[in-house]
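User: For my dataset I need records formatted as: sequence, then structure tokens, nothing else. Please produce one.
Assistant:
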Amino acid sequence: MSGERNTCDVIIPALNEEQAIGRVLADLPPDLARQIIVVDNGSVDRTAEMARDLGARVIYEPMRGYGAACLAGINAIRSNPPHTVLFIDGDYSDDPKQAWSIVTPVLSGEMDLVLGSRLSGQLQKGAMPPHAVFGNQFATRIMNAVWRSHYTDLGPFRAINWRALELLDMQDRGYGWTIEMQIKAARLRLRVREVPVSYRKRVGESKISGTVRGSVKAGAKILATIARHGFDL
């Protein structure tokens, strides 16, 4: 199935985001989505309850991992897919009010994949630690050199056509999700555009870039993902 024409579903991976999830849902444009899926990735707080009370459809993915949560969201809409899927994090670091700028080029058929670039947009001081900025720049430069792409960021705020999403056959269940999508899109020569987005300090504690251990693990995963797909050339 190619997806119901001119529809958009939103998938929000969430892990212990009770402080932020309400703000994310409140700021998404009211006429944007056919449905909003919040994927509870093993929260021990009231994330799921709050999301459900605010009208979101909540599904559960107990296996921890960003990619695992995204894949669970995709599987939840597979029987009746939309035209376009928007991914946004549940921590309120990206601005949900900017969703139309991400979604519109895909809904119109102009683009297959639109990525929100934090590093070419308005980056609030302290929103991304220096090591996270360096890691994103380093990874995208490698990707651009190998696959002749033009990426500036690996941000999670993105929209993709359902047909293209199926074509990518996403597999990564962890930190490598975003980079897997971008590498495969470049290899398949999908129509890709980046748009500048605002990025602010997240609400609550970061699970990845805010800790040295998390950053090291994420960096290793990114480099391993690049190496794996590079050897597939």
